[in-house]
Amino acid sequence: MEIKYKIWIEHEGKQVFGDGIYRLLQLVEKYGSINQAAAAQKMSYRQAWGKIKKIEKRLGVKLLERHRGGENGGGAVLTETGKAMMSRYGELVDKIESLLASQISWK
User: Fold this and answer.
1) Which domains are seen in the chain, by residue range?
2) I need a surface site. Which of 10, 11, 26, 72 has the fewest CB within 10 A?
3) What number of other Cβ atoms are within 10 A of residue 6's Cβ?
4) Model confidence, pTM
5) HSE toward the beta carbon, residue 74, CA cutoff 13 A
6) Helix (H, G, I), strand (E, B), or coil: what is residue 32?
């Protein structure tokens, strides 16, 4: 048996950060592209970009800087705020997993 859980952060009663946006931003950071991140998550570019815009609006901050395509192609990079949100969320999840592992045994 194993314990399952979900963690998310809310602001004014609305979800602003959780596993889905965390994974999506990790992939944008890895690939430098919303399109490639979306493909890796098996979602459309439009759906991925819509999720990012919705969270940015709820937070009132930019998580990504986009560069439109051209001769050298487009891309996206995390803002400092985006990096900080990912770092803090990742640390929170790591602490919770560590706590659960140290406190609970189902053997």
Assistant:
1) 13-103 (1.10.10.10)
2) 72
3) 6
4) 0.85
5) 12
6) coil
